[in-house]
Amino acid sequence: xxxxxxxxxxxxxxxxxxxxxxxxxxxxxxxxxxxxxxxxxxxxxxxxxxxxxxxxxxxxxxxxxxxxxxxxxxxxxxxxxxxxxxxxxxxxxxxxxxxxxxxxxxxxxxxxxxxxxxxxxxxxxxxxxxxxxxxxxxxxxxxxxxxxxxx
Length: 151
Description:
Blueprint: E1 4-8, H1 24-44, H2 46-55, E2 64-71, H3 84-97, E3 108-115, E4 123-130, H4 133-139
Parallel strand pairs: 2-3
Antiparallel strand pairs: 1-4, 2-4
């Protein structure tokens, strides 16, 4: 049986965008705040909190797929992939909270970033789905490179 957890970060949380050209200090503060808010969201989600307690001292999930949903504040066109720095900080917060041991390719698939409904102030939602090792392996690139030979 696979488990799914949904975490909503606070609306209005300042988000990082790949198009921003921030000085490293404010960028670091924003990254830390997203990570901290993700850890708080983990502790406030009763199902995830129970999974963390049951798995203690190890991680709650061995393998996971993450759907990252950006809830924009306006109807303007938006590229959710530009918010990868925010999603990355949130996933680091999941690791900090003990949901995953690490966020490398051997444990995590995603984040698959999508647009969600409007939320005043904008918001990030993470849908964390536990996957099996065999399902995780199916996500891995397995095609052999082909070489075209001109005749």
